User: Fold these one by one.
Assistant:
Number 1:
Amino acid sequence: MPYRRLPNTDSARIRALRSAVEKAADTDFQQLSFSTGTLEEAKSVLTHFEYLSARYQQLYETQVKAGKSFAKRTRNARIYISHFIQVLYMCVMRSEIKEGQLALYGLEKAGMVVPDLTSNEQLLEWGQKIIDGENRRTSQNGVPIYNPSIAKVKVMFTLFKEGYQTQKLHRKATSRVLQEVADYRERVDKIILEIWEEVEKHNSGLPPEKRLAQNRAYGIIYYYRKGEVAE
């Protein structure tokens, strides 16, 4: 005997509910295989779940699109900050800048090595330190570093920082709606199960082949175990 199994993806849940609702719409009231009360609830659940799923997809696509722009901003900021630090070190080695002034940038213990800028958080930390350090040094009559200038570094860093905050907002919004989708699945599964129970009970007196065909028309999905033959 075939066995049924509730949908395990959101698109499959929507298809199952839509099948039941559309079948009910094309069926005479007297011949409906499940109650009108269940039908009304199914319509409501379907509408809301479709909205939540579409909203999540929209937010996710927006996040992905913004992520591509953010990746470019991150790459540029990392290049400029890293390059600036390397030029700073060369100035120290040429005695154009005193080694003790590396403390202004938080680099006094770095061993003339560019700090790890792999993560966004590290990039945020060091970008701000480098900008602040250069501003402090030049305010003490130090000669500004050029190629790249701190102004150019700051532009790239600001674009990265803005993108970082935007991405956080996108992720937060996407995660919130995804949680709403996850929380609502229990209600969706419950109404699907109610429909299937009512439909199977209503059609229980029909011959096997006709019964399965009728049940499937309402969205019930049957599976056959290995070696079983479809009816």
Number 2:
Amino acid sequence: MAGVVLAAGPGRRLGLPIPKPLLPVQGKPMLAWVLDLVERLPLAERVLVVGAQASEVVAALFSGVPAGQADQSPELWARRGGVTWRILYNPDWPEGMGASLRRAAQALPIGMLVFLADMPFVPEKAAQAVLDRAGDHPVAPGFQGQRGFPVYLPASLRPQLLALRGDVGARGLLRDCELIPWDHPGVIQDVDEIGDLGGDG
């Protein structure tokens, strides 16, 4: 299974001069928290989908990537610490999350554990619980009945993922998603406003 982090959106609502994934949360870039979590999980592959301000995001978090390469190469491999990541550029990022999921599905014929770059407060135990339940159907943690992240998407959904359009993501594919009840709001807590940066980690 591959861990897939979606980090292609522009984050316009925050209105800041730096890319949203690089906003500092408790001393390090928001996206770094998500990458750290994915690196701790037992996954066969780790994939980052980038789009808006791709080169700036990648240069801040990965060493050895030439300036400007992330938004000029459809795919590149980079190391972060001792971990290898596959970085996919999504040229259709203005289209929304559906385009990023489609880009990941194009590259991956296996099941995906999907994370969002603006959700730095997801507990590792919640991600591991989803991973443990991965099988033939989608799985996600749920907080007070609301579906959260990460979301496991089985390989059987790949044809539907390849057909995604717009900013709805995989919502329409998750009608039979198994929800694992979770008591930590980090599984649903994203950063859309500056005030959201004060999560409890």
Number 3:
Amino acid sequence: MKLPRTLRLDPSDRFVFDRAAEPGEWAVSGAFVFADLDPATLSHKARVAMRSGFLGIESLGWSTLAEVAEGDFDTVAAQLATQLRAHFGAPDDEAALAAAQDEVNFAASLCDLPLGTVIAVQRTTTPEGLQERFRTLQPRTAGGPPVFALIQTDEEDPDHIDLTTLLGNSE
């Protein structure tokens, strides 16, 4: 089965998220983490995760990008169920596994693409809740620009780093 794995093309995730996922972790959308939170109360880095992060299942860290890879549904769902029980208040193992299977099924639905395809997420807050939009990123040509450029700004927030994506996007 095709499932998303976290991908780190450069060190930027370590700067923009409170906790960055390790490269190669199985991932899910992670929107459930923010379901009952008020975006206005989140730290800057948590808002970045809410807007553009995939949740790495093993570390519960965030990744800006994921890639389509072959994986075992049952193993990934069991890993997520363990995390849901330990860190997100699932009432019992059965409920945790059911919720994990739903999340992994959704993650798998994003992966009806060739292996190695890179996926990014963009979330916005609407009156109905979080809205997610996923896009694929095309590989750059040899000798092309870097994937990301770090741009320093005069922002007063010392954690603020502006990332400019230089990859071509397809909708």
